[in-house]
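INFO batch 0412 | record 1 of 1 | parsing
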Amino acid sequence: MAVPKKRTSKNKSRSRKANWKKKANSASQKAISIGKSILSGNNTSFIYTHDT
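INFO prediction complete | emitting tokens
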């Protein structure tokens, strides 16, 4: 017989959401940094070929 699961506490759900937002913020900062280095021409840590 199906039994409903226990409710997740607010603290646990907020903690998970904060962790998810922290990871997303880190990834976005890295993407912005790479984009800026490509635009400025100071890219030394990776190979980027510019197709014209």
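INFO post-check: The mean pLDDT is 86.
INFO record closed
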